[in-house]
């Protein structure tokens, strides 16, 4: 576990924005050399597994799966390696504990991969969810998403519903919203009424997104012609 006695990374304004929206983009927060090495490892593994090489898909059976089953299968095929230098710096880790108002413990990380050309990009039929009980009143953990390679808009990035971490404070109204979300019922209208917005975790290699784990999020369709490579680590309240 990285030491917490480190120079702060986040500004007070960034900390306030995270608390307000439940998700925050940090450009270039992960070392470029670290993500570059991880990208090469992923590409080598995909080639070894006869899934992807030289910009081409090698697995007809994988391509035939529905988009989100593809993502689950592909992301589970390669284990995120432990690196001598963590993707999250000690300073940022310390700030994450400040945001969580307590100690955090890292759970095993994982890769998030998707093949290109999965179909037309859409907000319909998505799997909005949280990985913890949504009724938690305090920050139950912070999930870090690291862009291992450039991720294009509509290129398969995880989507987060900024502001939805506040549903934990809304009791029955929050449960009603989540039920309507599962039915794809008046999504835009419902989000506007609550000052929620959709944030797409696209950007450049080395960018990091921090997310309050009460925030609704979902995989998305990779409509681009580029492989999507991200990594994620959950830091749970101790």
Poorly predicted runs: none
What name is given to the CATH topology? Jelly Rolls
The secondary structure category is alpha+beta
Count of domains = 1
Beta-strand fraction estimate: 15-25%
Please count the helical segments: 7
Going by CATH, the homologous superfamily would be q2cbj1_9rhob like domain
Termini gap: 13 Å
CATH top level is: Mainly Beta
The global form is globular
How many distinct beta strands? 11
- Average pLDDT score: 90
Helix content: 25-40%
Topology order in helix (H) and strand (E) letters: HEHEEHHHEEEEHHEEEE
Radius of gyration, Cα only, in angstroms?
18 Å
Q: Would you mind describing this structure in some detail?
A:
With 238 residues, the chain is α+β, with helices and mostly antiparallel strands. It has a single domain, classed as Sandwich (Jelly Rolls). 30% of the residues lie in helices and 20% in strands. It has 7 helices and 11 strands. It has helices at 12-21, 32-48, 60-63, 67-75, 90-100, 171-182, 187-194; strands at residues 23-26, 52-53, 56-57, 104-106, 110-114, 141-147, 159-162, 197-200, 208-212, 217-218, 228-237. Strands 1, 4, 5, 6, 9 and 11 form a 6-stranded antiparallel sheet that branches. It has a 3-stranded antiparallel sheet with strand order 8-7-10, with no helix packed on it. Strand 2 (52-53) and strand 3 form a beta hairpin. The protein is globular. It starts with 11 loop residues before the first helix and ends with a strand.
């Amino acid at each position: 576990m990285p030491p917490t006695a480190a120079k702060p990374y986040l500004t007070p304004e960034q900390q306030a924005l995270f608390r307000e929206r439940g998700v925050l983009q940090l450009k270039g927060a992960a070392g470029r050399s670290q993500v570059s090495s991880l990208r090469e490892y992923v590409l080598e593994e995909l080639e070894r597994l006869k899934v992807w090489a030289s910009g081409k898909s090698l697995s007809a059976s994988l391509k035939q799966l529905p988009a989100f089953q593809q993502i689950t299968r592909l992301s589970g095929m390669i284990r995120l390696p432990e690196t001598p230098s963590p993707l999250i710096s000690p300073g940022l880790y310390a700030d994450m504990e400040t945001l969580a108002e307590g100690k955090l413990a890292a759970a095993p990380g994982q890769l998030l991969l998707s093949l290109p050309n999965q179909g037309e990009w859409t907000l319909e039929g998505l799997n909005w969810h949280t990985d913890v009980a949504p009724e938690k009143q305090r920050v139950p953990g912070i999930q870090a998403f690291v862009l291992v390679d450039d991720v294009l808009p509509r290129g398969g990035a995880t989507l987060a519903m900024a502001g939805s971490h506040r549903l934990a404070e809304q009791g029955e109204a929050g449960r009603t919203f989540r039920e309507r979300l599962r039915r794809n019922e008046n999504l835009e209208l419902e989000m506007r009424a609550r000052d929620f917005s959709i944030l797409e975790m696209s950007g450049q290699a080395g960018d990091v997104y921090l997310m309050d784990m009460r925030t609704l999020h979902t995989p998305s369709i990779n409509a681009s012609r580029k492989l999507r490579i991200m990594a994620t680590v959950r830091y749970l309240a101790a």
